[in-house]
Design a protein that fits this description.
This protein is mostly helical and about 210 residues long. Helix content is about 75%, strand content about 0%. The protein is built from 7 helices and no strands. α2 crosses α7, α3 packs antiparallel against α6 and α5 runs antiparallel to α6. The longest helix is centred in the first third of the chain and has 30 residues. It is globular and about 50 Å long. It starts with 7 loop residues before the first helix and ends with a helix.
């Protein structure tokens, strides 16, 4: 049952504030310092371009994560669930800021398609939550599992000397896995195999687009 104490206007305002912070703040500020503590190494140009493209994809993924959590939080059945999702979104915002900072260090820009990634994920998050919190949580659990797999792949592809990017992605991977566990502990329902396949296909489109644009 929906918690009548949840104020729809307050939720909408929080969602709008998040969209502005995610898409239009030039220098996002994390609540926690970056895990990139290694000295910045000068990378050969081809390696720099590869690292920059991979980190642009990761930044775009964090933009989409904000949309996903905010869409779900907007229509969450209880205020407790809404607050849980907002807390997770704040941790994910740190990831976004860390990736943004690393892109700057690599002399690269974020994806020009970030508004599309945010909007698409927002709609998906809200739609999954409308089916009930357990299904919305199931969607988040599966998303975090696929993201952790994706980050492991990027750790394999990053130049060995790009320790700063590696430190960021390593921390992100551990926290994505923790968010997935939180969703399962909160009652996430396992998604059908077909839905998982559609999610992988949609993620592949985003990764391909953000890598280049």
């Amino acid at each position: 049952m929906r918690d009548d104490s949840a104020n729809p206007l307050e939720r909408l305002m929080a969602s709008a504030d998040n969209a502005l912070r995610t898409l239009f703040v030039r220098e996002p500020q994390p609540a926690r310092p970056t895990p990139a503590t290694a000295s910045a190494a000068s990378l050969p140009e081809e390696q720099r371009k590869t690292a920059a493209a991979l980190m642009r994809v990761n930044h775009a993924g964090e933009v989409a994560a904000q949309g996903l959590y905010q869409g779900h939080a907007l229509v969450a059945r209880s205020q407790e669930m809404h607050d849980h999702l907002q807390h997770a979104a704040e941790e994910e915002y740190d990831h976004l800021a860390w990736c943004h900072d690393r892109l700057r260090e690599l002399d690269a820009r974020p994806s020009l398609l970030n508004p599309a990634w945010y909007a698409g994920a927002y709609v998906i998050g809200a739609a999954s939550a409308l089916a009930g919190d357990k299904w919305g949580l199931g969607f988040i659990d599966e998303t975090e599992r696929q993201v952790a797999e994706h980050l492991e792949g990027h750790l394999q592809r990053l130049p060995a000397t790009d320790l700063r990017s590696r430190q960021i992605l390593g921390t992100m991977k551990a926290e994505e896995e923790a968010h997935g566990k939180d969703a399962r502990d909160a009652g996430a329902a396992p998604l059908p195999t077909a839905v998982k396949g559609i999610m992988r296909a949609a993620a592949a489109v985003m990764k391909a687009g953000a890598y280049r644009i």
